[in-house]
């Protein structure tokens, strides 16, 4: 495609200095004459002086006059524009319908004729699989589970009984959906009695779940991941948790039971949230933070226990100086005592 064609596809403006045909995408620092790149992070702006890219997607505030040899596409959000063009060029094709003879499929299961179920997969009783959904090898799908249209289930995923999965859901390899919630009652002798987890998991449309992530079934009702949420690898979501729409949960985060997370929430890596809390909409929790009480106001929070990020930054700036401040205080205390003794 010519840069002008790419710009039209994106609804952006093209500034073309030389004619090129773009047939691939690449990072700005390594892109060649026939490749499209993008610039959204200012620290990569230095590569505009050396890049050989055939065209670069940039923000309107870039002074393109400094680079008369380069072609540009001007977009407000270059990162988003680049994602769109990659999705356009590398859009996955619908899977070829196929049912592997080496798979076990219960006679009561309903699999759409356009779906694909690959080798060594187990499909239990009363399972329903929708249009153009692909289930890769070694997947377990428990009884009474429903999987919607255009889903992609990677190898070695376990989907326990009664799970409900919407349309356009991606579940990466090794994830476990619907495992037992961690629920026990302790008797007078200290013995831990397992509480049967008789609820389920509901995954709404357009959700992606990363490799090794576990989402536990509810004790009584449903653990719910709402529409558009993206979950990274190695995340633990406990029983009866509810995650709101379009939230992002980054690797090694853990959410304890019955916590309600709002919509458009970002939980950065290794965030820990205690149980039975509520996190408001539009909250950002920075990496390695610990949440021990509910958060009712939008904004950014950091620390263990977490509090307002702006205050945390100020305290963090002081923290490396604490020992020196401690020594100065001890010295001042000593001098004050000497003055007091002298006056007495």
Can you tell me about this structure?
There is one protein chain. The protein has 344 residues and is of the alpha/beta class. It folds into 2 domains: 87 residues, Udp-n-acetylmuramoylalanyl-d-glutamate--2,6- Diaminopimelate Ligase, Chain: A, domain 1; 215 residues, Hexapeptide repeat proteins (UDP N-Acetylglucosamine Acyltransferase, domain 1), CATH 2.160.10. Helix content is 15%, strand content 27%. It has 4 helices and 38 strands. The longest helix has 22 residues. Catalyzes the N-acylation of UDP-3-O-acylglucosamine using 3-hydroxyacyl-ACP as the acyl donor. Is involved in the biosynthesis of lipid A, a phosphorylated glycolipid that anchors the lipopolysaccharide to the outer membrane of the cell. It comes from Hippea maritima (strain ATCC 700847 / DSM 10411 / MH2). This is UDP-3-O-acylglucosamine N-acyltransferase. Homotrimer. It catalyses: a UDP-3-O-[(3R)-3-hydroxyacyl]-alpha-D-glucosamine + a (3R)-hydroxyacyl-[ACP] = a UDP-2-N,3-O-bis[(3R)-3-hydroxyacyl]-alpha-D-glucosamine + holo-[ACP] + H(+).
């Amino acid at each position: 495609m010519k840069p002008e064609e790419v710009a039209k596809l994106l609804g952006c403006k093209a500034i073309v200095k030389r004619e090129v045909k773009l047939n691939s995408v690449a990072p700005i620092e390594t892109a060649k004459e026939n490749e499209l790149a993008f610039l959204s992070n200012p620290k990569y702006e230095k590569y505009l002086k050396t890049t050989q890219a055939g065209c670069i997607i940039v923000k309107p505030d870039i002074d393109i006059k400094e680079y008369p040899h380069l072609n540009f596409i001007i977009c407000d959000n270059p990162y988003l524009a680049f994602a769109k063009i990659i999705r356009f060029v590398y859009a996955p094709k619908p899977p070829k319908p196929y049912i592997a003879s080496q798979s076990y499929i219960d006679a009561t299961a309903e699999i759409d004729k356009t779906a694909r179920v690959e080798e060594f997969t187990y499909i239990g009783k009363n399972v329903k699989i929708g249009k153009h959904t692909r289930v890769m090898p070694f997947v377990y799908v428990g009884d009474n589970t429903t999987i919607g249209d255009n889903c992609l289930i990677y190898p070695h995923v376990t989907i326990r009984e009664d799970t409900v999965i919407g349309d356009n859901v991606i579940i990466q390899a090794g994830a476990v959906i619907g495992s037992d919630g961690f629920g026990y009652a302790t008797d007078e002798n200290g013995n831990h009695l397992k509480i049967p987890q008789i609820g389920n998991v509901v995954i709404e449309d357009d959700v992606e779940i990363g490799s090794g992530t576990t989402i536990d079934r509810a004790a009584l009702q449903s653990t719910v991941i709402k529409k558009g949420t993206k979950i990274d690898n190695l995340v633990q979501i406990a029983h009866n948790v509810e995650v709101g729409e379009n939230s992002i949960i980054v690797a090694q985060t853990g959410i304890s039971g019955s916590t309600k997370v709002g919509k458009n929430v970002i939980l950065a890596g290794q965030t820990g949230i205690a149980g039975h809390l509520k996190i408001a909409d539009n909250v950002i929790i920075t990496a390695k933070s610990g949440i021990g009480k509910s958060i009712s106001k939008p904004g950014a929070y950091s620390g263990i226990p977490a509090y307002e990020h702006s205050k945390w930054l100020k305290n963090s700036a002081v923290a490396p100086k604490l020992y020196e401040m401690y020594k100065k205080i001890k010295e001042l205390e000593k001098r004050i005592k000497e003055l007091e003794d002298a006056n007495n």
